[in-house]
Design brief:
Strand order of the largest sheet: 3-4-5-6-10-9
Protein name: Endonuclease/exonuclease/phosphatase domain-containing protein
Domain Endonuclease/exonuclease/phosphatase: 51-167
CATH topology of the largest domain: Deoxyribonuclease I, Chain A
Pfam families: Exo_endo_phos_2
Organism: Elysia crispata (lettuce slug)
Number of domains: 3
CATH superfamily of the largest domain: Endonuclease/exonuclease/phosphatase
Distance between the termini: 8 Å
Structural class: alpha+beta
Order of helices and strands: EEEEEHEEEHEEEEEHHHEHH
GO molecular function: catalytic activity
Length: 302
């Protein structure tokens, strides 16, 4: 897990990466911009995938905005084979479908748009990501990459909790590096009769003799491990474990929320889901989490 939760002034960014990707922080991209995390992940073809998460506050200062432009320039100058930058940049004035800014040349939004063009970054999000009733929907959450075919597609899912930002599920065209799992003994397939016979065949008086207690224990453990390994097959399969913070009820509510747009479309034959219906499902999910606080514990996530 990589995050920016050290200080209270930050909203907080959290990035989870599987250990098979061998993630590591990009130290060369550390800067004075308030909230950003860049992680280098290893791919199966020997190349790397650099994933950057960024949050820019709507009240960001001019100095912080300049640091963001410097960060984009520094990230692209490294010429990473695969680079993707995602986050909430809070530039509602930019029309990403047309690639134009409705502000003046000295406006932070215009400078940011020009910086992405100068860095040859491709912005893939074209559907509004934030919505509030009686307000215009905006594209605030963006996904940039240095290659057009790196992002396969982006699915917009309902928001989590009471957030007014939708959830973005970004599918990438890259192969992760598979790490060979360590084998372990499969005791439920062990030949315990053979283990028992081998232990009975050992001359323990000769093996242990008059050794000190500590040496006796080491000798016994070594013999036991050797006999056990010889009669027990190995396996690389692990037991499937459900996340400790997700019980069956919470999972059902979450899946129902994700399936809501397609279900409503088939039922009402409309292309737009009403906000009250979405809020109803979100409130049910929040109520379930509040009634089971011990089940929803982010510290248990892995």
């Amino acid at each position: 897990m990589f995050h920016t939760l050290e200080t209270e002034r930050n909203r907080g960014i959290c990035f989870y990466a599987h250990r098979d990707l061998k993630p590591s922080v990009c130290q060369h991209l550390n800067c004075d911009f308030l909230e950003s995390v860049f992680v280098d992940c290893k791919m199966s073809d020997g190349l790397s995938l650099v994933v950057g998460l960024v949050y820019r506050s709507p009240g960001s200062t001019q100095e912080n905005n300049d640091e963001l432009l410097s960060l984009l320039s520094k990230a692209t100058e490294q010429q990473h084979s695969n680079l993707i930058i995602m986050g909430d940049f809070n530039f509602p004035i930019i029309n990403w479908r047309q690639g134009e800014s409705g502000a003046g040349l000295d406006h932070p939004a215009t400078k940011f748009l020009n910086a992405t063009k100068d860095a040859f970054l491709i912005q893939h999000q074209t559907v509004p990501t934030r919505h509030r009733e009686r307000e215009k929907s905006n594209i605030l959450d963006l996904s940039f990459s240095n290659a057009e075919d790196l992002v396969q597609d982006i699915m917009v899912a309902p928001a989590i909790g009471k957030s007014d930002h939708f959830t973005l599920l970004v599918n990438l065209n890259c192969k992760r590096s598979l790490v060979r799992k360590e084998s372990r003994l499969s005791f439920h397939k062990a030949d315990f009769n053979k283990i028992r016979e081998d232990l009975q065949a050992v001359d323990w008086n000769k093996e242990l003799g008059e050794k000190p207690i500590e040496d006796m224990w080491k000798t016994f453990r070594c013999k036991l491990e050797k006999i056990t390994v010889a009669s027990t097959p190995r396996t690389t399969k692990g037991r499937h474990q459900r996340n400790k913070w997700m019980d069956r009820g919470t999972l059902s509510e979450r899946l129902a929320t994700l399936r809501l747009p397609s279900l409503e479309f088939r039922r009402k034959r409309e292309s737009v889901v009403t906000a009250p219906t979405v809020n109803c499902f979100k409130n049910r999910l929040d109520k379930h989490w509040k009634n089971h606080p011990s089940l929803y514990n982010p510290q248990c996530a892995s």
